[in-house]
Amino acid sequence: MDFKNRKKKRFDRYNALLIVMLAVFSVIIARLTTLQVIMGEEYAERANDEFIKNLSEKAPRGDIIDSKGNILATSVQSYKLVYVDTAEARKEIYNTIDKVNSLLQKAGESASDSFELKLLPFRFEFSSETPEGLRRLELRWKKDRGIDSLIFNESLKESTGKGKISELNESETDLLDDMVMAYGAEDTFHYLIKKYKIYEALEDGSEKNKEYAKMSGNELYALMSTRLSDTAIRDYIEIKDSITMESYQGSRAVTIVNNMKEDSAFTFMQQLSDLPGIQVDTEPIRLYPYGEMAAHVLGYLSPINSAQKDRYEERGYDVSTDYIGASGIEAAYEDRLKGSKGGSTVEVDKNGRTVKELFRLDVNPGNTVQLSIDMELQNVAEKGLKEISTQLTTTNRIHTTGGYISDSSNATRGAVVAIEVKTGRVLTLANFPSYDPNIFAVPGRLTPELYRKYFNPDYEAFGNDLIQRLNLKDKEGKAISVDYLFPLNSDGTRRDPYDLYARPFFNYATQGITPPGSTFKPITAVAALEEGAITPSTVIFDGGSFTSSSLRGYRVRNDGGSAYGSLTLNKAMAKSSNVYFADLGYRLYQNGGLNSISEWAWKLGLGHDPSEPAHSTTGIEISENIQSNVYNHDSKRLITQRLINFGVVEFLNAGKARNGSSFKPLSIGIDKADLDPMAQAKQAIKDAVKDALDISLDDANIRKGPKLEDLSKILTPLFQGFIDTLPAGSDVEKASYYANQIAEYIVYDKVNEMWSPVNVISASLGQGDTQISLLQMANSIATIANGGTRYRTSLVDRVLDEEGNVILENQPEVLEETGISEATLEAVRNSMRAVNELGGTAYSTFRNFPIATAGKTGTASVRSNDSTFIGRSAYGVYVTYAPADDPEIAIAIVIYDSTRGSYVAPIALAMYEEYFKDVLESEYPGYTRKYNYKIDDPYEAVTGDYDGNPIEDETTVSP
């Protein structure tokens, strides 16, 4: 064998393989070199030019329509200007912001300013009606931006020895929160300049920026304010802040202008090449075509605040951009109205703009909610309420009745409710004052002026004006001070303890609870007839006042001092005789005890038995006040027990015995400086007093309560125990003396006050502890009118899908069959009919109306001993139903401080003229309507700046 040739062949094969491998690797290395070195920049650019992005598309909210299909809330497409944060756009962000602001100014547009940090002066603006809500929102806002971490690291980390905020205990956390709240708006502005590196807008170069990074926020502001305006700095902060907040949600898109006019949108489209990161999009926005109409029914939208963030994030909301229902039907039916989002997967260029759509998921609009509200009747109620209120505060302010002069100058708020008596459907729910929910549908519409009006009213200016208009004097005849009407809080803001200022967002129909006054007399009549205290023909003599030897001088008089002589139920109701109904109250007390009225009122949905948890008695879908009350013993007992500590402390501090003699004061009030033995001794006295007042209804009805001697024996060692904790030589009375004084105060004053028949008599007149909502009152009258069946009140008839198919329909729901006899109901209905007929208190309003009606006027006193001095007058209340013979509709009306119920009754007449318009036209062609309130023309869109007034000739994007 040729060994040399074989070896040569082998080497040739290996050499060939090696050469091939070297060649392949050479090509790969050359290609990598080309890609990474020679063409690296080009491919980096292409990588920025072409990348994939998922875009979300909002679903239009479903419509809200009235019972006849009229649109009360809808969604329309609008243009918005968006900044998309990309690496390329970031290089020019400040120049882009400046160019955008210039174009907006030329177009007459304004940026959507939802940034809560404001200028001139530096301040925060958060939307909440309560101080607690404002504090909560401000705290969350500051914490989201790291201010709590800043303060912790600078001020608390070392002193507490804790390494993290999460390690702080409760008191330390409270301290940190207080320090965060104390961190002012101007300091926050300076802090954000540094946090977001706004100094880069100066374009002084990287070396200078390194110097600036070492400066404090205050120093940076001092430097920048010489070259940039505060407004420009704030604009930069707002965009950078929005980008940061959005990034937490995985988004880099920030909306600069919402609801932009079409011409403005086209202007920006033409300029996009010079505006890196800017794009024009469309999205649905909420529109309320009739502005303020039914605002408290519809509600309004709001962004998702920090406190709601987790809850809505779990439900698939984009918490940085989505709006949710904040009140009314918008909130109650949020899940039905919101729809399902769509979206697309797209290729975008280096500026974040879409170049190709790869995939699309269509949106599903929300469902349509059809209300029971009749828009035309709602319009009449709202305009009637506004007109009567305006008259009472301007041309018809001073009223003289029975020798008494009253002033309705502050009759600035009220409500109307109308119910279909045989179903519980709410036909009207009106409030005055109101608000336009369009203001909250788009960021930026809530101007500083509107913000102050709604959320930070000038109580001082209002108070001074009220004092001047009403010539308010204190008990000594001196001019009352604004500090008395609107006391100052510790933070310098003022509060409104006497409910003097009209609140546009407050639903007076469902959330306001007031004494019903004489409109409660039909309920008293029901109780008296059912309990056998009277019959319809029982005669009670009205000599002008009611009293009894057992009532220790207590006296009830008729309005104006009138005396009506011998009265049966019909005439007593027609004249609204306080004497007659006080007599009924006393008879009910004697026959059935302290709860003889409340037990019947509860059946009619007025308040509830306090042994049950607080709950709605109407079933309405929107927010309501469930703390209403009709006097009953248990509620009175609980209130007395809750307040007794204040009474005992005040009594002992005053040093005045019940017989008028003086004694050495003793302080058992809470004092943080007290050591445990002293604090415990004080509490033991208070607990014993509270226990003494724990008297059951059965015992109260037979006047079985604590005995003076027994209570004094219980209290004596407790007072001695407290005195023993005092410093030696303290100048005090004997323990037995204090014990006896407090025992007398409890037994003779507080216990007698709890079980006094005066409570029942006051309740019979709709006064005292009785406080109920207008919606409850309307439903109770509807129950009397329909034969004793109490229905759940409802604002929603049905829910429809996109094609108009019914997917949910509400049926009348019976909450209670009251069991009131037909004889009783007929007697009460006849007496209410007499109110609107000749000789009745509402006859002047209804004398020419051809359809028989029934009703009851009410003048309810304000629950304040200072009402005369604080500018409060009586509530004017009126309840009614019609037709009297076969009732269809029940109405309840209240205007605060209007002084008399008869003054508000014309609103009901206007509503009857609208409700029965077809009957009037066909059966009573000669009748001329007294009131003709036309519905304002709707507007199809609200774009650009918005001042709350209808805007004409605006353009919307076709859906």
Could you please describe the fold and organization of this structure?
- This is Penicillin-binding protein.
- Residues 57-357 form the Penicillin-binding protein dimerisation domain.
- Pfam families: PBP_dimer, Transpeptidase.
- GO terms for molecular function: penicillin binding; peptidoglycan L,D-transpeptidase activity.
- InterPro entries: Beta-lactam/transpept, Beta-lactam/transpept-like, PBP_dimer, PBP_dimer_sf, PCN-bd_Tpept.
- With 959 residues, the protein is an alpha+beta fold.
- Among the domains are: 3-38; 52-61 and 76-285 and 346-367, no CATH class; 513-630 and 770-915, 3-Layer(aba) Sandwich (Beta-lactamase); 633-755, no CATH class.
- 42% of the residues lie in helices and 15% in strands.
- Strands 2, 3, 6, 7, 12, 24 and 25 form a seven-stranded mixed sheet that branches.
- A hairpin with a 4-residue loop joins strand 4 and strand 5 (123-124).
- The longest helix has 36 residues, at 3-38.
- The relative contact order is 0.11.
- The model is unreliable at 1-10, 42-50 and 943-959 (pLDDT under 50).
